[in-house]
Amino acid sequence: MMYIEIDFSSDEAIYQQLCNQIIQGIAMSRLVDGEVLPSVRQMAEDIGINMHTVNKAYTVLKQEGFVKVDRRRGAVVSVHADKEKALDQIRRDMRAVLAEARCRNLSREDVHRLVDEIYASFAEADAGTGTDTDLPG
Amino acid sequence: MMYIEIDFSSDEAIYQQLCNQIIQGIAMSRLVDGEVLPSVRQMAEDIGINMHTVNKAYTVLKQEGFVKVDRRRGAVVSVHADKEKALDQIRRDMRAVLAEARCRNLSREDVHRLVDEIYASFAEADAGTGTDTDLPG
DNA sequence: CACCTGTTATACAAATCATATAACAGGTGG
DNA sequence: CCACCTGTTATATGATTTGTATAACAGGTG
Questions:
Q1: Using one digit for the tens of pLDDT, what is the confidence trace for B5-53?
Q2: Which one of B5, B89, B97, B114 would you mutate to disrupt binding with A, by most A Cβ within 10 Å of its Cβ?
């Protein structure tokens, strides 16, 4: 199972951090389609938080289509989302980030480099798994 | 003054929406360095929200270096932020957005196109102002 | 039938969000 | 000096969110 690390001093909600880390885990192929996440009780015990906080994270992930629930197994990674459906949300979020970036005098090229850097870091952990990526070199 | 539009049914906090729209206004050069924002009381009345909600937004913008306060004039747009100081936050936010994008099967090239599209939209309103941009064509 | 899943119902404390009324400190202009 | 404008602060209140806690329920497995 992948490492989950929660920053309890962060202003970001615990369930939100958990969601983000799982999504990033999927992006890095540390979590692959069909993989079973730890049960809400197990995950809660591992991290040292309440069961309901984990459940809330799973519920959000389910609503956003990152996991599906199999009653016999539990929460299963399931990435069958199409581009178009989620694009609106991504566009909104991206717009906010880019507005800040532009105010900080980051050029379009700077952002491209940052995107490449992060996408590369996603694929790094993915190197030996045989998964195909969109990466150059 | 630029248009501010609040979505009261949104799950995003009002002061947060206000911050984002002002930052996007700066990114689009609808708000330029030295420009005076409406007073907290005026802005609150215009939008139909409480003075303190506006004040909270201004306080956040001040802490993040987007405005400075001139006691005689009020909140003044002031973008003197260096790249490096704010880069960590941008990198974190960008990483979260890109993780979701990659899970939605957006390729690196797709993201580049999205970035170009948004950056272009920033510069559009900026077209007749003589401000130099990083845009191609 | 025990045992594992997610899920739901309550309840509770703490924090956040938005509102409201009121006052204070500093700068401007009549 | 005095109204008048700024941001700012102090309190208070109500709604919502967050996280925790105990407990129970429904469905699938062995």
A1: 999 999 899 999 999 999 999 999 999 999 999 999 999 999 999 999 9
A2: B97
Global pTM? 0.87
- Residues B97 and B110: their CA atoms lie apart, in Å, by 13
Separation of alpha carbons A97 and B118, rounded Å? 10
**Residues ≥6 apart with Cβ < 8 Å to B29:** B122, B125, B126, B129, B131
**A24 token code pair:** 């990033």
Q: Domains in chain A, start-ordered, CATH in brackets?
A: 14-129 (1.10.10.10)
Q: How far apart are CA B134 and CA A113, in angstroms?
A: 14
A89 near B114, Cβ under 8 Å?
no
Measured from Cα to the C1' atom, the residue closest to C25 is: B71
Indicate which of A94, A105, A116, A131 best probes the interface with B, i.e. most B CBs within 10 Å of its own CB: A94
Q: Which nucleotides of C are covered by protein (CB under 7 A)?
A: 4-10, 16-22, 26-28
